[in-house]
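[Meeting: bench + compute handoff]

Bench side (C.D.) handed over the final construct sequence. Compute side (W.E.) agreed to return the predicted structure before the next meeting so the bench team could plan truncations. Sequence as handed over:
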Amino acid sequence: MFIESLEGRTLLSVSAINTQIKIDRLEVKADLLQFRSDVASKTALLLGDLQTMKTDGLKNDATLFPLYKTFRSNVTKMHQALYADNLAEKENVLSDELVIVKELIHIQKDKLSDPGNVSADQQQLLADRVQLQTDEIAGLNARITTRETYFMTLSTDLSNLVIAAESDPNASPALQTAISNFSTDRSNTLTTLTGDLTAIMNARTTLAGDLMTLET
């Protein structure tokens, strides 16, 4: 309702290539877990805020409810854009993962029938893993850009809602407080989740860089 689907793909790793790559992958996993945790906690918080606003009469306020609907409409547009970003990322990543799986199968066959080619196979596998991270990073960057693009629009919508509530004679003090709390929590959610996605992107960038170092 409030947040796009989770980042949740595997790293397609049978075992770590070396200690640094293992550390990099653990950092990616830790950042993914943080993102999931924040999604869960922020969603629960916002649902609670929404319920409080409804209880305090938001839907019955002819001034405030249309402003809230405008905000919700723009949130829906953002989520549709994020969903498109996510699907595009998944399409590229699934293709990369299929290539990696085929390369892993090829390596196992060469170990049995043509050991002399294993070194070259492993070099190609590294290149495939770098491509996977590159496409993951591009997808994350697209989602971050989408969030940043909508940030000003949603911030303006929330500001309009808070200002209207403060001057609305039909809004109870409880509703005014509930709207203010919702605005603060929604803005903080946008900032937190964008920060989480940036952390994931940075961790994947580090992983890709270290894989490229191994290539050379």
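W.E. noted at the follow-up: The chain has one domain: 19-215. C.D. will use this when planning the next construct.
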